[in-house]
Amino acid sequence: MKYQSVFDIIGPVMIGPSSSHTAGAAKIGKAARNLLGKQPKWAKIYLYESFAKTYKGHGTDFALAGGLLGFETDDTRMSKALEIAKECDLTIEFIEDTSAVSHPNTARLVIGNDSEQLELVGISIGGGKVEITELNGFKLRLSGNHPAILVIHNDRFGAIASITSILAKHEINIGHMEVNRKDVGKEALMIIETDQNLGEKVMNELALAKHITQISAIVS
Amino acid sequence: MFRTAAELVEIAEKENILISEVMIRQEMEVNDKTREVIYAEMERNLEVMEKAIEDSFQGVQSVTGLTGGDAVLIQDYMKNKTPLSGILLLDAVSKAMGTNEVNAAMGTICATPTAGSAGVVPGTLFAVKDQLNPTREQMIRYLFTAGAFGFVVANNAFISGAAGGCQAEVGSAGAMAAAAIVEMAGGTPQQSAEAFAMTLKNMLGLVCDPVAGLVEVPCVKRNAAGSSLAIVSADMALAGVTSRIPCDEVIGAMYRIGKAMPSTLRETGEGGLADTPTGRLLKEKIFGAF
């Protein structure tokens, strides 16, 4: 089921005017920031369908910027997020894209700094709830309901075991797990939803595991 | 977990508990939280709703100037005249509109189920409150009952205008409110389902056609319509009137109608009222020529 909690229906507390276009957009921006692990220096944001047609009126642009700045949906600075981004040396470009997409509220975010970048596709499915459907070209379905870690690794034997054994050692339960790869022996992605948030210590240990190139956490 | 309204009602009847209690117990189990934590979270939502209504009575104005001030007009009218539709109903209307005026003015609101439809549930709650004199706990329960039915709609159809039109937003919100009013007034779980069905039935086909793509026109006034329909449907259900088409089948119909709606009528601001001469003129004034 798409919705798991009554607070997806009665909530979130947010700054208006639109749960899909403002609150949802802020959450997508924040997910991208969390995945990069820090505030980006630049962002190219492609908007589709309803997002593309109405983003100026709904404040989708400042909400996405607010998310990239790490704002929660009820942050009263939200409507000033574009100005704040400028002050923080975060350059954001919005592009209205006419390509066909499967959900009317879709955004593609390419964000980065001098040394790294990532590309994420998020959809805002209603009531402020979002799903991350693509990361760096990998298809995925991340609800954002639970804490999750995303692990970019080399497609070698033992890579998955090296991660799961560390989680087992710290008694962290895996609720859902997916593994995707671009090609045999190439870059691959593990998505692991856990029941509790992982501490810094566990994250550091995971980052040093075998065949792991990048790891990031989405805190629920 | 309950998937349908029929299952929700069945659990409540079998265990002899309220709809709100079914929702609270499920929330505790699925999300591994205590009753106290869940109550506290919902109480915070209630406080945000109350504050938004208070703010709106001071008079608010959106950045575009398209909306604001109507809640105050209605409150003044209620004080100075005898409203034809009755004090309770008009009070709900003014509080629903007020909440959405605050939303349009980029104030803080609680989405129920969305921001565009955020006025209906609190508007009706803070209006029926004056007649039913609920405890604070009962007011929190009102939100769980509304949430339980919204949960069914969200998982079986949609709650966003972009996905299913305004029937999915204000339609769902009105139906959720109707179900919650019935519980607060002492009706049965089945009567809540009947009130839900009768509200949503009368919202079927409602398109999402916001002028200039903004959550202002006609959203604020649709919240007025949604809240008044919720109160009327709740009264009908409490009187013993039932819906010939069961609740879940009404939700199914809403889903298929939404799927058949062209994208111009699903929150793109391209059709309906947005595409009237005045609608286009307002858009031009606000954003300049496109």
From TrEMBL, chain A:
Pathway: Carbohydrate biosynthesis; gluconeogenesis. Residues 148-220 form the ACT domain. It comes from the Bacteria. InterPro entries: ACT-like_dom_sf, ACT_dom, ASB_dom_sf, Fe-S_L-Ser, Fe-S_L-Ser_bsu, Ser_deHydtase_bsu. It catalyses: L-serine = pyruvate + NH4(+). The keyword Iron applies. Its cofactor is [4Fe-4S] cluster. CDD domains: ACT_LSD. Keywords: 4Fe-4S, Gluconeogenesis, Iron, Iron-sulfur, Lyase, Metal-binding. One of its GO terms (molecular function) is L-serine ammonia-lyase activity. NCBIfam families: sda_beta (TIGR00719). PANTHER family: L-SERINE DEHYDRATASE, L-SERINE DEHYDRATASE, BETA CHAIN-RELATED. Belongs to the iron-sulfur dependent L-serine dehydratase family. This is L-serine deaminase. The gene is sdaAB.
UniProtKB/TrEMBL annotation, chain B:
Pfam families: SDH_alpha. Keywords: 4Fe-4S, Gluconeogenesis, Iron, Iron-sulfur, Lyase, Metal-binding. Signal peptide: none annotated. The lineage of its organism: Bacteria, Bacillati, Bacillota, Bacilli, Bacillales. Pathway: Carbohydrate biosynthesis; gluconeogenesis. Residues 15-274 form the Serine dehydratase-like alpha subunit domain. NCBIfam families: sda_alpha. The keyword Cytoplasm does not apply. GO terms for molecular function: L-serine ammonia-lyase activity. It comes from Ornithinibacillus salinisoli. InterPro entries: Fe-S_L-Ser (IPR051318), Ser_deHydtase-like_asu (IPR005130), Ser_deHydtase_asu (IPR004642). This is L-serine dehydratase. Belongs to the iron-sulfur dependent L-serine dehydratase family. It catalyses: L-serine = pyruvate + NH4(+). Its EC number is 4.3.1.17. Its cofactor is [4Fe-4S] cluster.
